[in-house]
Amino acid sequence: QVQLQESGPGLVKASQTLSLTCTVSGGSISSGGYYWSWIRQHPGKGLEWIGYIYNSGSTYYNPSLKSRVTISEDTSKNQFSLKLNSVTAADTAVYYCARDRGPSWFDPWGQGTLVTVSS
Amino acid sequence: QSVLTQPPSASGTPGQRVTISCSGSTSNIGSNAVNWYQQLPGTAPKLLIYTNNQRPSGVPDRFSGSKSGTSASLAISGLQSEDEADYSCATWDDRLNGVVFGGGTKLTVL
Questions:
Q1: Given an 8 Å threshold on Cβ–Cβ distance, is B88 in contact with A47?
Q2: Which chain B residues are closer than 8 Å to A47 by Cβ?
Q3: How far is B78 from chain A (nearest CA, A)?
Q4: What is the tens place of the pLDDT at every residue in B17-53?
């Protein structure tokens, strides 16, 4: 059974880079057919797709975040990561990683991690 | 403002049937499959319905999904107190070139 777990700092200063890692267990991120995704949820709001990595390193990002987002993978550690640069208070959210069977078929999800951007 | 439109709230009494709508356009729901997620308070979303009307194993058959044109619906029959949660729809948008979500519907069991 595949499980995902997010990790990373819970507090980031404005203008700096948010960095999170998703560790996958019970399955390999190198196995084909899946899109390893990041999604966020602003406090009290709906879900927002950030992007995904697939096919051994190909990436696809939400156009509204594309200029600030990088998703990468480390297959040796069975992890994939999110970097979001030049953060502002508007980037304060719970960040989830999830496996997407494509498209928008997210299962399973990590438990989520709250990232707060401070001034 | 979400690309997919859901009512912010819905409610029902135990045993009732409730439906939650998800309205989109030809570039999203009209062209792609819809998936539904249940988010219990303080937890991560969980896949509830995939490809418009398919239930993952373990999801009770009280939950059903449908799609017609540019709208989709989630129906919950035999409402139970443990169904109190937020429900969100999602699909791909061909015009925006990305995954889009509804704003979520908070279901209250009275």
A1: yes
A2: 37, 45, 88, 90, 101, 104
A3: 25
A4: 999 999 999 999 999 999 999 999 999 999 999 999 9
